[in-house]
Amino acid sequence: MSIGLGLALAQPRKRVFVLDGDGNVLMGMNALASVGSERPVNLVHVVLDDRSHASTGGQRTISGDVKLESVASAVGYRATHRADSVDSFDASLRAALVQPGPVMVLALVDGGAVKGIGRVAETPPELAARFAAEARR
């Protein structure tokens, strides 16, 4: 999230979408507060909430007890949406596109691995170079 915030602040004319998981949001609440403090109008934060730390083995998170969109509102996000179906996710994204940010769209999703998708193959330096190249566009 912090990288997305930095990009949104550095590129105010571009709409920035951050795709995040509930576990990462819970482990980095300071990033939510920073977004709420800076309030970039071009930022859309999409959180896929499967109520688990999927990337580290599927341990349960507390997102079933802590409504992350409520936390986002409390720290200064201008709008939040909670989607529990494909149709409500579509409607939430459409609304987020016309609202000033920061906006959170939280999508409740089923957990589990996606077949054919493994760990990220690129090294951190390769990912950093690819990100920097895209950010300069």
Tell me what you see in this structure.
The chain is α/β, with parallel strands linked by helices. Helices cover 43% and strands 20% of the residues. It has helices spanning 2-10, 22-27, 29-38, 68-75, 86-98, 124-136, and strands at 16-21, 43-49, 52-53, 59-60, 79-83, 103-108. Strands 1-2-6-5 form a four-stranded parallel beta sheet, sandwiched between helices. Helix 3 crosses helix 4 (68-75). The longest helix is centred in the last third of the chain and has 13 residues, at 86-98. The chain starts with a helix and ends with a helix. The mean pLDDT is 89.
Give a quick precis of the structure.
This protein has 137 residues and is of the alpha/beta class.
Strand proportion:
15-25%
The poorly predicted ranges are none
Helix and strand element order: HEHHEEEHEHEH
- The counted number of beta strands is 6
Helical element count? Answer: 6
Q: Provide the structure class.
A: alpha/beta
How widely separated are the two ends? 20 Å
Q: How does the major sheet shape up?
A: 4 strands, parallel
> Whole-number radius of gyration?
15 Å
Mean pLDDT: 89
What coarse outline follows from CA principal-axis ratios?
globular
Order of strands in the sheet with the most strands? Answer: 1-2-6-5
How much helix, percentage-wise, in residues?
40-55%
